[in-house]
TrEMBL record:
This is Rhamnogalacturonan acetylesterase. The lineage of its organism: Bacteria, Pseudomonadati, Bacteroidota, Cytophagia, Cytophagales. Residues 38-232 form the SGNH hydrolase-type esterase domain. It comes from Hymenobacter jeollabukensis. InterPro entries: RhgT-like, SGNH_hydro, SGNH_hydro_sf. Belongs to the 'GDSL' lipolytic enzyme family. GO terms for molecular function: hydrolase activity, acting on ester bonds. Residues 251-277 are annotated as: Disordered.
Length: 277
């Protein structure tokens, strides 16, 4: 009696098997984004084209982190702790905070300005306002970081002077009392200016001769606000402290430098050129 032929076994294409496997396992969830809020004044804030090359140190900050960190710069020109609160700029941040987020807090330039009563904040009130920022950030299981006000350029006999003493001291006092990480940007920025020297430190600030830039046809002699170089240097100081202090959940997301012999990405419309070792 003749034997019946055995039925052919179906062979599934590999691509179809992978498709079925994906359907059962589901898409991989994207990594959770960590928001890094910045609150403060014009030394940090985003700038508009009409004020370029003025640059706040918060503007280049995102380039120092990987793509899981979102820098949300809420700093505003001319604001003190008092006016930042009075204008309801703080509460929307509190409402949006998620566990693990960070708030970097740097005020002082406008708080100390007694010549401008619309923004001046006495040191005692300044401390209370910083305390409010810290406590309400922690209430949302987020991390506050206090930053002393970045220095103004002010040399005397070749030495960079301290320009924010009472308000830097008040910031450090709140940090100690509340056991909050402190970035002493006042001290570090003074040391940086001293390294550059009285003349070369002008490169860090909005110092322009007449005709240097169309936004400032008559020039600019500004020892408070930064050039692009100055903003990047100040951001580097902040990032260096984030790394040195091993801030949890944040220091591990710093952007990693390219390997020594890596080929940099080509500009649009250009071919990448190999790097010579």
């Amino acid at each position: 009696m003749p034997t019946q032929p055995r039925p052919l076994r179906r062979i599934w294409p590999l691509s179809l098997l992978l498709l079925l496997l994906t359907a059962f396992t589901g898409p991989t969830a994207p990594p959770k984004k960590l928001r890094l809020y910045l609150i403060g004044d014009s030394t940090i804030a985003q700038k508009v084209r009409q004020t370029f090359p003025e640059t706040g140190w918060g503007m280049p900050l995102s380039t120092f982190f990987d793509t899981t960190v979102v820098v949300d710069n809420r700093a505003q020109n001319g604001r003190s702790t008092r006016t930042f609160l009075a204008e309801n700029r703080w509460q929307p941040i509190v409402d949006a905070l998620q566990p693990g987020d960070y708030v970097l807090i740097q005020f002082g330039h406008n708080d100390e300005s007694e010549a401008h009563p619309d923004r001046y904040t006495p040191p005692a009130d300044f401390r209370r306002n910083l305390l409010k920022f810290v406590q309400e950030t922690r209430a949302k299981n987020a991390y506050p970081v206090l930053i002393t006000p970045v220095t103004r350029r002010k040399f005397k006999d070749g030495r960079q002077q301290e320009t924010h003493a009472p308000y830097s001291a008040a910031t450090a006092e709140v940090a100690r009392a509340q056991q909050v990480p402190l970035i002493d940007l006042d001290r570090m920025s003074r040391e940086l200016l001293q390294q550059f020297g009285e003349e070369n430190s002008k490169l860090l600030f909005l110092q322009l001769a007449p005709g240097d830039h169309p936004n400032y046809p008559y020039g600019r002699n500004d020892n408070t606000h930064f050039s692009e170089l100055g903003a990047r240097k100040m951001a580097q100081l902040v990032v260096g402290e984030i790394k040195a202090q091993q801030l949890p959940g944040l220091s591990g997301h710093l952007a990693r430098p390219l390997p020594k012999n890596a080929v940099p990405p080509a500009a649009p419309g250009q071919d990448a050129q190999p790097t010579t070792p």
